[in-house]
Amino acid sequence: MKPSTAVTVTRYTAILVIGLAMGLPLFYLFSSSLMTPQDVSAYPPHLVPPEFRWANFSDAYDFLGGRTIANSFIYSFGIVILQLCIALPAGFALAKVRFRGSRALLVFFAIPMFLPNNVVLVPLYVVTNELGLIGSYAGLILPIVGRTAFATLLFRQFFLTLPDGLIDAAKLDRAGWLRIVRHVAVPLSGPAVAAYASITFLNSWNDFIWPLVAAPGDDYRVMTVALAPLAYQEGLSNVPPNVGMAAAVISVIPVLLVFVFTQRWYIQGVVGTGTDNT
Amino acid sequence: MRTKSAEATTGREGRAADTGGPRPRSEAPRRGPARRRFVSRDGTAAAVMIAPNAIMYMLFVIVPALAGVALSFYEWNLFDDPVFVGLDNYREVLTDDDAWAAMVNTIEFMVLGVLPTVLVGFVLAVLVNTRMRGVGTVRVLYFVPLVVSTAVASVLWSWLYQPQSGIFNYLLGLVGIDGPAWLANTSWALPALTLMIIWMSLPLVIILYLAALQRIPDEIMEAAKIDGAGVWRRVWQIIWPNVSAMTLLVLALQVLNFLSAPFETALIMTQGGPIDSTTALSLYIYRVAFEQGEIGAGSALSMIQFLLIVLLAGGLRLIHRVRVRRA
């Protein structure tokens, strides 16, 4: 039975119109980041800039500061890389090494499923403060690295699908477990690493509350913390909205690029684990 | 040295066994002392692989969670010595009108947000779940909110919500409605924030439902084919019951999401105002702990919030079990 043309046209139209509506806010972000101060607050509002003001971006760069932009990269890459180093071997061990207590450990790593991050925000701050890490890169990065549950379970799930034969073959060559991790697990883990890295990068790049409380002051400030005051209209922000939008665009571009290129793995990771870990 | 030679022996034995006929069931030949040694070596290797992870996880997840329980029984401002006060913090927060107001706001966020996100996400997933040409490209538009952080979304949406020049009020003006000053209005600020959170939450829901839809057997999808009259009925009577397991997961995720997301969103966009109308429980906890410096009271509130989550999770499980039994 072939679908009727009318239904197909209706469906196409609906998909397109709703899709454009979902994308409209982001489109408006890009377009208003290029408007003049007059055009951005004009009534009726402009959807595309009548004239382009590229200087918004140099103003936005001055407002954010190079250090804040660099901090966002240090924070996100720091978390992605450090957590990968500790989560991948653990995920492999939980999937493929038989040892007493592995079931219990699995349950242990599943605890945070119902422990939203903000429930532990206050005591996490207390612990980090007692360790003397507040106001440093270590205090910014390590507590988030410690939230390994999602990554560990993601890697475990991936390694479960790895044929045992590969490991048996390596064992016959008398390779120890650590060599098996290095030479068998890591080279084959590409898709899992891509899914992990994509999801974890997006989440940490967009983190706001932990960088806000863990690193007061400008030295360790990340972009989300710099941008947030611009959203509060009652506040005394002296940054014009078009420049604020340009600053927001600067912070969106890296994550947009990462998502465009890793979309497939991002979706696989979310579907495989049933969560995006936010 | 001794262990090494023993390993070599078992290794050779294993190889010999492999060549001779079908492989014996699992680790059968490794009985006795050799097997024990093998297991303990695996235990050591596993410990090496897991320890760094487990230590970090203990330090920054488990210890804080336990510390949160302990801190809820103390009065502490981070600087002086903590004082044990028993259940005083709980008594204090349970008789605190602002805490109850925050609880009511939390429920309002959930009531306005959870079901619409789940239902709209499901409908949109069904809509874009097609192999029609070009849809794959357009589908990316539905994932756009994923790349937008709460901070960026807040900057952007607070401008869209502008009373005079914002796009929302312009569009309402086109149909003759005089839009409110969204974020400055005590009755509209909370729904306005909820709408933005729904926008940000839809991609995850759509992704999960798309996966569930693709797992439905072809014969069933064929019967539900959206190709003519009765589309609505088929979607809800044939497709919807077939994704009920996913609906449970999505519901649980969105309950947690609408418990957490209003925190950052309101902190950034309205600072909980106007007149505390957007202060959810999680934001109130932040206020009490970090702005008023009452770590103990904040921790007690966190415990209450956690209890709420456990109750909601239990409720969801119960609903699921009843439905499974009925099916």
From TrEMBL, chain A:
One of its GO terms (biological process) is transmembrane transport. It is found in: Cell membrane. Its main location: membrane. CDD domains: TM_PBP2. Pfam families: BPD_transp_1 (PF00528). The chain crosses the membrane at residues 12-30, 73-94, 106-128, 134-159, 180-202, 243-261. It is a multi-pass membrane protein. Gene3D superfamilies: MetI-like. InterPro entries: MetI-like, MetI-like_sf. PROSITE patterns: ABC_TM1. GO terms for cellular component: plasma membrane. Keywords: Cell membrane, Membrane, Transmembrane, Transmembrane helix, Transport. Residues 69-262 form the ABC transmembrane type-1 domain. Belongs to the binding-protein-dependent transport system permease family. This is Carbohydrate ABC transporter permease.
TrEMBL record, chain B:
The keyword rRNA processing does not apply. It is a multi-pass membrane protein. Coiled coil: none annotated. Residues 103-313 form the ABC transmembrane type-1 domain. It is found in: Cell membrane. The keyword Transport applies. Keywords: Cell membrane, Membrane, Transmembrane, Transmembrane helix, Transport. Belongs to the binding-protein-dependent transport system permease family. This is Sugar ABC transporter permease. It comes from Jiangella ureilytica.
